[in-house]
Amino acid sequence: MPTPHSPGAPATPALVIRQLHKHYGSHRALSGVDLTVGAGEVYGLLGPNGAGKTTLMKALLGLQRPTSGAIEILGRPVGRESLAQVGALIEVPGLWPTLTGDETMRVHARLRGVPEEWIEPALRLVSMTESRGRRVKEYSLGMRWRLGIAVALLARPRLIVLDEPTNGLDPVGIREMRGIIRSLAAEGAAVLIASHQLAEVAQVCDRVQVLVAGRTRYEGSLDGLARDGDVEAGFFRLLETADAGVG
User: Fold this and answer.
1) What is the residue-averaged pLDDT of the chain?
2) What's the distance, CA 101 to chain centroid?
3) Less packed terminus of the chain by CB within 10 Å, N or C?
4) For the chain, which domains are there?
5) Which of helix, strand or coil describes residue 4?
């Protein structure tokens, strides 16, 4: 599915986050997080539950106001114009159970102001064309997740934000989702995914950031995260040192 990215366009990062803080009273959900994602890149946010991944995503989508810091999407602050270039799926997809998959896509096409001709490629990309006539309440969790991703891709965004993109998928679906993510990046979109599934992130991401208790504990390639050649061992060692207050 083509994206509006133009090969001749200036190399403005799709997403830049500088010194992002989010406090809830005395609780610091995010403490000085920096992040940059370029066009054609798959960037992974890793960390245990409660690390701040979803809080960061909600802030960049304008769903939560950060305490301080700056967020730019394609060189512009978070707002209507910049968010029009973003497709996102975080937490549970918000779908109408009595509508069919096709009706759901048509509603979102009208809301986003995109041609209905764009519906078919988005459904095809997530293997939902054969199920488009069924009501959402009849869908499995994996099918609802696929439809939610199709909605996120409908407007052909330049930045795609996905929270746990393999949630509810069987092994075949997980493999297909990896291919979808990589194909979107190959077409010029920037993809930011959050997960606590290290093995899945390792399959698709160019760079990762590990968040623990709202702080960046690592940022770079997965190879750099490895300990004696073992990425998983390096990741858990990082969590252990963070829990012990080291670094």
Assistant:
1) 89
2) 22
3) C
4) 15-85+158-244 (3.40.50.300), 96-156 (no CATH)
5) coil
